[in-house]
Structures are given as structure tokens and as C-alpha cells.
Fold:
Amino acid sequence: MKSLNIFTITLLFIMSLLTIACNDDDKEPEVFPIRFTHQDYTILFGTTASIDFYDGGGVYELEASNPDVLGKVTIDLENHQLKVFPASVGESSLTITDVNAHSSVTLRFTVEDFYLSFRIDEITGENANSYLTKGGEIRFIRDEENTKQVKIMRHNNLTHQMEYVANGHFDITQSSTNIFTLDMALHSKREEELEAFSYTIGGDWECLRLFESYFGYDWGTSIASKSLPVKQLEMTLTDTFNDCKITCTIQPFNPNK
Structure:
């Protein structure tokens, strides 16, 4: 009789464990709200911004404060990315409601004109252009009217941020001997008077193809035959009057900057 009681208790214990296990299997997995690494993003007009997100319940409602700026916004569930196709330059917030997680998050967007950015890696010789410094950037801006604006940025070693120091406009001309010249007219943020600078362009010819594509130049086959696929594009600017050479590399755009 005692053995029967022990067997019965053991059987009941096993059944209770199985019941708990079954209940755990039936329990729905916990849903974590959608989250992003940052809340503020700068994106470029004329491009598609892809922003990674994490977790999330899979069903979302999107509401932009200024849809005329943000344009089309979608969620790529497979790749866990928010896709933004901006419609104009400006600012807008975007509220993302995670329906299944019963939560929401608001992101702030600044849409800027498209630009090609070249980081200054090295300067040799006598640099007559005080706006250009090692670690800084030259940003060639493509606005709606294609006014060929340029902005010079300088790296702040304390904040590790890029700071605006000068702006103006640029143009690239081609000589009969197939020499390309970059002309820039710049002024600082404190001065209105323009200073003129001129450089001969060298380096990877693919850089010229980018300028041709984005800024409406038409150099035809004069650069096509010299273009080679490269991983990181390098452009050299030579000031022949001051025997100065500035070496730059094109920079990928970072929406988190």
C-alpha cells in the first residue's frame, strides 16, 4: 500500500510538471517595443535613407508632422529598417506606433540638400587657403537650382564634430588639353567678401564622373575611358602657384552625424 501511495504521488508530480510545461509552450512570446539607436537624424534630399531598428511587434502606424518634407516612409520588416524617401528640404518628426507592443517612439529628421563630401587627408607645400585643414571636409552641394554651392567644414578636436567655417560656390572647367580645374569662391561665416581659389584636379577619375552625374556637367568620353572601379575614391587638388597639394577621399554619408 505504501508503495502504491509513493507511485501515485510520483505520477501526480510528473503530470503537474507536464502541465506547467504545456502552459509555458502556450504562452505568447514577450513583445519588446521597437527601438532605434538615435532619435535625431540628418538625411539627404534625393536619396533613400535606410535606418536600422531593433525588436518591435511587427505592426506599425507611421505619422509625420511634415509629410511634405519626409515624403514616403515605409517599414522593411525583413531587414529591420525604416526607409525614408524625402520629398523636400526641411524638418519633420516621425511618430512610430508599435501596435502590438502598445508603445510609440518619435524620431526627428532634418533633410538637407544632397552633397558630395571629401575629407582632407593630407596637405603638403604652402597652403594659401586657410579654410582647408587636415581632417576637415569640402562639401559640394547639389540644390534644386543646381547653384553649385560649396561648404567647408573643420574638425573640432574637443567635440569631435564637424563645424562650418566657410561657404561659397564652385565650378569645374575642362581645358582643350583635358585638364580639369576646380575654382572656388569662399567667404567665412563672419566675412562677406569672397576669396578665390583655383586647383588642378587629379586622382581617381571616377570623382569627375560623380561631379558630371550630380552637377550637370557633360564631359562625355573624355573621362569615361579613364574611369576605373575603386573602393575608396581619392581626389587631389594642386595649387601650382603655391606648390601645394591637397589629398582628399570621398566620404560615405552618415545619417547619425
User: Anything to note?
Assistant: The first helix runs from residue 2 to 26. Residues 225-230 have pLDDT under 50 and may be disordered. Helices lie at 2-26, 67-70, 206-215, 221-224. The two ends are 78 Å apart (CA to CA).
